[in-house]
Amino acid sequence: MQPDPSRLLSIMGPGAPVVGVYDAPDAGAFGPLVAPQPGGRACVFSFYQNWLNGETLHITRDNFGCGGAGRALLDVQTRARDEFIRFLVDDEGLKASHELMALWLDARPPYQPEFGHLLIGPLCPDQYGYLKTVTFYVTPDQFSLLAL
Questions:
Q1: Are the C-beta atoms of residues 28 and 123 closer than 8 Å to each other?
Q2: H helix or E strand, kind and range, residue 57
């Protein structure tokens, strides 16, 4: 049985974007598609407006945008571990220390894709079998309504 987010969406109110992450064998079923510039470093979240416009981000091991997405979602290592940790701590500010970042990376192994296409965008009900996760982007007020 396919989950139906309509109850949650009715509680949160209009305009709450719902984004699915799919690991699928064929990207064609998810159009219209957008992709990072080849060789670029675009963050997957820079495609947020595309998701709101009904477009789906298509990433692969050959074209994934930023190194964080490459590592976390596709198990692609774009730089040496120490260099990656320095970047995540010193440039991105994701953890308070290099040691904490190393522990976090060790505790969170990269996702191992089943297929060659990861797709991030609006829900595609006829592709439910490939859906890996759903994210509801909400404001703090909307989030508090979900606790009721």
A1: no
A2: strand 56-59
Query: What is the widest separation between alpha-carbon atoms in the chain?
Result: 46
Beta-carbon count within 10 A of 32 CB: 10
Q: What is the pTM of this model?
A: 0.88
Residue 19 pairs in a beta bridge with 135
83-138 residue pLDDT tens: 999 999 999 999 999 999 999 999 999 999 999 899 999 999 999 999 999 998 88
Block residue for tokens 């571990």: 81
As a residue count, the chain comes to: 148
Peptide bond into 32 cis (omega under 30): yes
Neighbours of 18 (CB within 10 A): 17
Q: Is 30 helix (H, G, I), strand (E, B) or coil?
A: helix
DSSP string, 10-23: HHH-TT--EEEEEE
d(CA 131, CA 119): 9
CA dist., res. 114 & res. 105, Å (int)? 21
121 three-class SS: strand
